[in-house]
Specification:
The complex is a heterodimer of chains A (412) and B (409). Chain A is 42% helix and 16% strand. Chain A contains 18 helices and 15 strands. The longest helix of chain A has 15 residues. In chain A, helix 11 runs antiparallel to helix 12. A seven-stranded mixed β-sheet of chain A has the order 1-2-13-12-11-14-15. In chain A, strands 4-3-5-6 form a four-stranded parallel β-sheet. In chain A, strands 8-7-9-10 form a four-stranded parallel β-sheet, with helices on one face. Chain B is an alpha/beta fold and 409 residues long. Chain B is built from 15 helices and 14 strands. In chain B, the strands form three sheets. Chain B has a five-stranded parallel β-sheet, with helices on both faces. A four-stranded parallel β-sheet of chain B has the order 3-2-4-5, with helices on both faces. In chain B, helix 1 packs across helix 6. Chain B is globular and about 70 Å long. Chain B starts with a strand and ends with a helix. The chains are: A alpha/beta (412), B alpha/beta (409). At the A-B interface, helix 3, strand 4, helix 5, helix 6 and helix 17 of A face strand 1, helix 2 and helix 4 of B. Strand 4 of chain A pairs antiparallel with strand 1 of chain B, so a sheet runs across the interface.
Chain lengths: 412, 409
């Protein structure tokens, strides 16, 4: 199915192909691995089946981040017809209390609770009265989301929970960044905004979970990751703040446009960023000379493909095809405008068997793949980069360009 | 409802996946969510495979929650028939999709009106079965379907039953046993299901003896083959010096060969390992894992090395009787449980000198400062090139001796 997106965005040269969706992806439950690294003071309880617990015990996510604190509660066949499960749950959580150790508890649902329509809000109210700890209900499910959207659903649930219990916020003009980051990146971003003399209210989510910045009618909300669609929609609905759509801070060109758009909104001068961008492109000249003219094929399973594609086009590579699980035309508007003149083909919800046929016809120099197809493609003679490497926080900002370009230049 | 920190056994459809991926002419269709394809990633990363995994999934979307699964499933089966003409289709189901209660036999009849492909549906319930019992039932289903009672000529040969992909040290164990069989000049008939095709299944009845490498998957299958085709079986693989000698004796008795010609006398003379210093160097060990690698390993540690075993255990409940019979008269504690915290607390109280366990015991070992050797699944283990790390047969004797001298002696 081919769709011309001229009506919604005034991009007449862009055509998008939609296929029937036969691609592999991981469960959104795996977001607990990188989030427990970036937020202190949380404990995860997952209400699911045997599959969920087996996936978490043996997957690569938990081995890479060994300090994750979680436990699963497994439903069996005898639990299907029972209406009220509050008492059985509280008996089991009594045994978990010494491990929880006064942290905030997050109750995650799975496909099982989605199909049987179990009400997590009622369970969390009951448990809060018994144990006097915050129990936050979140409805993750693997039905229509890829693994990075687990963070999106978690922030959406946090917004709903805290809005029900919040006080009135004062109206003031400030800046809020949305998206989880590591300590070093938070320090880097807040230092830049301090140099520009902007009223910076903080990050959401913070290092302490209950410490939420001041959302109000006059604040400016800027997303850092490209997969945060649901949270931005609910922030606009609850607080009526202004949401900025710019390029994402990946690569030197993107970070320059990111800072410039924020500075224009607050009427501050912003000429230092262009000089820094030119300095960085000069330092990278050796590595980009090696890569000029090579062709690349991107098979996507997280939502980070379009900003990566824009960075690689500015480096001088040629892109044969980009595929995305879901294309949000509102949030990626600026990125699509930059890409439009190069005339590449974009595929939404791809079919990997068709893509493998196209790869054997086109013969690219480098492929970005999901984990499942890495070893078979290497044995056929192609060069391969794992798409899992681009969810790390080190690739954002001006200082993250070295980490990004190392992945590609070391192969040529 | 149960509480779990880490799990030892997988769900039911992973058992079907293990058997189906090891056979060469089968395509697996998983009727579940999109995120249930993580087994394909585990397969290609651990086994370093050269082909795309034979896996398709008819994944559930919000449309199917209101209208029913049958349309999407029929579409994926048609895609599989068009692209893979000469392969057979194996259908499996996951836990949460089973709640929607779709009739798979009905869908099979709808497709058989227009197409001529074979569709196999093994009789498994995703809530009641776990990984090992599901794998056993699919193998039994395949043998009952394809192995008819045709009277073929018998040959003096041996079947090897049990090894599948995503096991533990599968290729290394096979190489060790093939080395022993080559020295004795015994022919190998069929290795099932590691690399076999469905046409090879009819040849299983030609052999005269079955050797089992994975007792937790194949015990009832061996009983079935003994009843129908009158083939005796050997249940556990040989570990240690005295273990390999007894194994060679059994094979020579069955095939009427002279035992003394094939014994490696040099190995026995070299292997004088602390036989005279047993009283001064009594060390304590803890053994925990699945069944093939624990029972015979414990016997070899007692008889060859003189090590005391303080606790022995497993997480599979079917074979509890054989543990109780063997260790009745000694001081060892027997533990049969699935509970991650209980096992850790018992090991912390006992404080052994060395632990033989799985990947979940690494945390206890590192906090107490005890060396650990991994012997069984579950646990990520990728295929090593040019190194054979198994504990079976002649190679196992050398590996175990070098590891023990490095770690505790």
């Amino acid at each position: 199915m081919i769709e011309k997106c001229s009506k919604c965005l005034n991009l007449e040269k862009m055509t998008i192909i939609i296929e029937n969706g036969q691609y592999p992806s991981f469960c959104p439950i795996s977001c607990i691995s990188w989030l427990s690294d970036r937020i202190d003071d949380i404990f995860f309880i997952i209400l699911g089946t045997k599959t969920c617990s087996h996936f978490l015990s043996t997957s690569m996510f938990i081995q890479r981040f060994p300090n994750v604190k979680f436990a699963t509660i497994i439903f069996e066949e005898s639990d299907i017809g029972i209406g009220n499960i509050n008492e059985n749950l509280s008996n089991l959580i009594q045994k978990l209390l010494p491990n929880i150790n006064n942290r905030n508890v997050i109750l995650m649902g799975t496909c099982y609770t989605e199909i049987l329509k179990i009400d997590l809000m009622e369970i969390s109210n009951y448990l809060e009265k018994q144990f006097h700890l915050p129990f936050i209900p979140i409805e993750t499910n693997g039905i229509e989301s890829c693994y990075t959207e687990g963070e999106d659903i978690l922030l959406f649930g946090l917004m709903k929970y805290f809005n029900a219990k919040s006080m009135n916020n004062l109206n003031e003009k400030n800046l809020i960044l949305v998206g989880s980051l590591s300590d070093e990146k938070r320090f880097e971003f807040s230092r830049e905004f301090r140099h520009l003399d902007i009223n910076f209210a903080g990050f959401f989510p913070n290092k302490n979970l209950l410490n939420i910045p001041n959302f109000n009618r006059k604040s400016l909300v800027v997303p850092v990751h490209p997969y945060l669609n649901k949270t931005l929609r609910i922030i606009k609905r609850l607080y009526r703040s202004h949401i900025l759509t710019t390029a994402f801070p990946i690569g030197p060109y993107g970070t320059r446009i990111f800072y410039e758009a924020i500075a224009k909104h607050f009427n501050v001068e912003f000429e230092t960023f262009i000089r820094e961008e030119h300095k960085i492109w000069k330092n990278l000249k050796e590595k980009t000379e090696k890569m000029k003219g090579k062709s690349i094929f991107i098979m996507g399973d997280n939502m980070m493909e379009i900003p990566l594609c824009r960075f690689l086009l500015k480096c001088g590579l040629k892109i044969l095809e980009v595929s995305v699980p879901y294309l949000s035309r509102q949030n990626l508007k600026k990125e699509l405008e930059i890409i439009e003149k190069y005339q590449i083909s974009i595929v939404e919800s791809p079919n990997i068997f068709n893509q493998l046929e196209r790869i054997s016809n086109l013969n690219p120099d480098l492929i970005i793949t999901p984990n499942q197809l890495a070893n078979p493609l290497i044995s056929k003679g192609y060069k391969v980069v794992w798409s899992l490497k681009f969810i790390l926080p080190q690739i954002y900002g001006f200082s993250g360009v070295q980490h990004l370009i190392k992945e590609f230049s070391s192969l040529f | 409802m149960k509480l779990k920190y880490r799990s030892y056994k997988g769900p039911a459809y992973s058992g079907i996946f293990r058997v189906g991926a090891s056979l060469t002419d089968i395509i697996i269709i998983i009727n579940g969510m999109r995120s249930d394809q993580y087994l394909g990633a585990m397969l290609t990363l651990r086994e370093r495979s050269k082909e795309v995994p034979p896996l398709l999934s008819s994944c559930l979307r919000k449309k199917e929650l209101s209208f029913g699964i049958s349309e999407r499933l029929i579409d994926t089966i048609k895609i599989a028939i068009e692209k893979f003409n000469n392969k057979k289709i194996l259908l499996c189901e996951t836990c949460s999709v089973n709640l929607l209660q779709e009739d798979l036999e009905n869908i099979k009849n709808i497709i058989l009106k227009n197409y001529k492909q074979e569709i196999l549906i093994p009789p498994i319930h995703p809530f009641k079965d776990d990984e090992f019992s599901a794998a056993e039932k699919t193998m039994r289903f395949l043998i009952e379907k394809y192995c008819q009672d045709i009277n073929e000529k018998r040959e003096n040969s041996v079947n090897i039953i049990g090894p599948t992909y995503l096991g533990y040290h599968v290729q290394d164990d096979l190489d060790a046993i093939i080395e022993i069989l080559k020295k004795l000049d015994i022919k190998i008939n069929v290795i099932f299901p590691f690399g076999a095709s469905t046409k090879d299944i009819t040849k299983i009845q030609k052999a005269t003896l079955n050797i089992c490498l994975n007792a937790e998957i194949s015990f009832s299958l061996l009983l079935l083959l003994e009843e129908r085709f009158k083939q005796p079986y050997i249940l556990f693989p040989p570990i240690g010096v005295i273990g390999t000698l007894e194994f060679i004796k059994k094979l020579c008795n069955h095939f009427d060969k002279d035992y003394t010609k094939y014994v490696d006398n040099n190995l026995l003379n070299d292997f004088e390992f602390n036989r005279f210093d047993k009283d001064n160097m009594r060390k304590k060990a803890v053994v925990f894992g699945d069944i093939t690698h624990t029972i015979n390993l414990a016997k070899s540690l007692i008889m060859d090395y003189g090590i005391d075993i303080v606790m022995i255990g497993t997480y599979i409940k079917k074979f509890a009787k054989s543990f109780n019979d063997l260790f009745k008269n000694s001081n060892t504690q027997i533990l049969i449980s699935d509970n991650y915290l209980k096992i850790q607390n018992i090991i912390k109280k006992l404080k052994p000198d060395i632990i033989f366990g799985t990947v979940n015991e690494i945390k206890v070992a590192s906090t107490l400062g005890i060396p650990i050797i991994r012997i069984s699944q579950p646990g990520p283990e990728s295929k090593k090139l040019f190194v054979n790390d198994s504990l079976i047969g002649y190679k196992g004797i050398r590996n175990l001796k070098s590891k023990l001298t490095r770690l505790i002696y």
